From TrEMBL:
Domain of life: Bacteria
Protein name, entry field: TetR/AcrR family transcriptional regulator
Key words of the record: DNA-binding, Transcription, Transcription regulation
Pfam families assigned to the protein according to its UniProt record, in alphabetical order: TetR_N
Xref: InterPro entries: Homeodomain-like_sf, HTH-type_TetR-like_transc_reg, HTH_TetR
Residue ranges of the annotated DNA-binding region, renumbered to this chain: 33-52
Lineage: Bacteria, Bacillati, Actinomycetota, Actinomycetes, Micrococcales
GO MF term (any one): DNA-binding transcription factor activity
Annotated ranges, domain HTH tetR-type: 10-70
Length: 201
């Protein structure tokens, strides 16, 4: 009986975290009341607090889950790489990441986490996530520090381009900033071959 209760509690906790990613992505950490999190998950506010001690803990769990998904996508990309050369592995990882952030909830959650990084727990979680992904890219690709730095930097530029829709602007500055960087839209993800060669689009 105890095992069944634990299993049910864990499944509800997982469902709440997945729901929280969507909810926090829409309105951010500061703008999301616990009642909204409960409503989206289809549970009572009291049950939210039964699963997590406070809103900050739930946001951190959602952010940790986001980085779980990022790492899984990078592994999927690396496993599909055409060769074991660092540049090829990073290129394949970049393509997988591009497809992942076609889900704008994951992208928006990271943006909101940065805006709330003055909250110590969120700062620690975001730093932990960046460290985790950077270390994974280093070990999985066996790339140089410069290659991995560019991989991460281009990924952050992709966040900016995607959030502002810059690639859709027919202006010289937008073309310059978007040069060589392609990424999917939620409606039509790019194929692996369409993703820019050197890093996350």
């Amino acid at each position: 009986m105890a095992r069944t209760v634990t299993s049910t509690s864990q499944s509800r906790r997982t469902a709440l975290v997945d729901s929280a990613i969507r909810t926090f992505a829409r309105t951010g950490y500061l703008g999301t009341p616990t009642t909204a999190l409960a409503q989206d998950a289809g549970i009572s506010p009291a049950y939210v607090f039964k699963l997590f001690p406070n809103k900050t803990a739930l946001f951190v769990a959602a952010l940790d889950r986001c980085f779980d998904l990022v790492e899984a996508a990078l592994e999927e990309g690396a496993s599909a790489s055409a060769s074991v050369e660092p540049a090829d592995v990073l290129e394949a990882m970049g393509g997988a990441y591009a497809r992942l952030i076609a889900d704008r909830d994951l992208l928006l959650l990271q943006v909101h986490a940065l805006s709330a990084s003055d909250v110590p727990e969120i700062h620690a979680s975001m730093t932990r996530g960046v460290a985790r992904i950077t270390s994974f890219a280093q070990s999985r690709s066996r790339g140089s520090d410069a290659q991995v730095q560019r991989f991460v930097a281009v990924g952050q530029l992709c966040h900016l381009l995607t959030m502002l829709g810059i690639p859709d602007l027919d202006q010289s500055w937008a073309r310059a900033l978007s040069r060589g960087i392609r990424h999917p839209s939620p409606a039509a993800p790019l194929t692996r071959e369409e993703v820019e060669d050197d890093g996350p689009p």
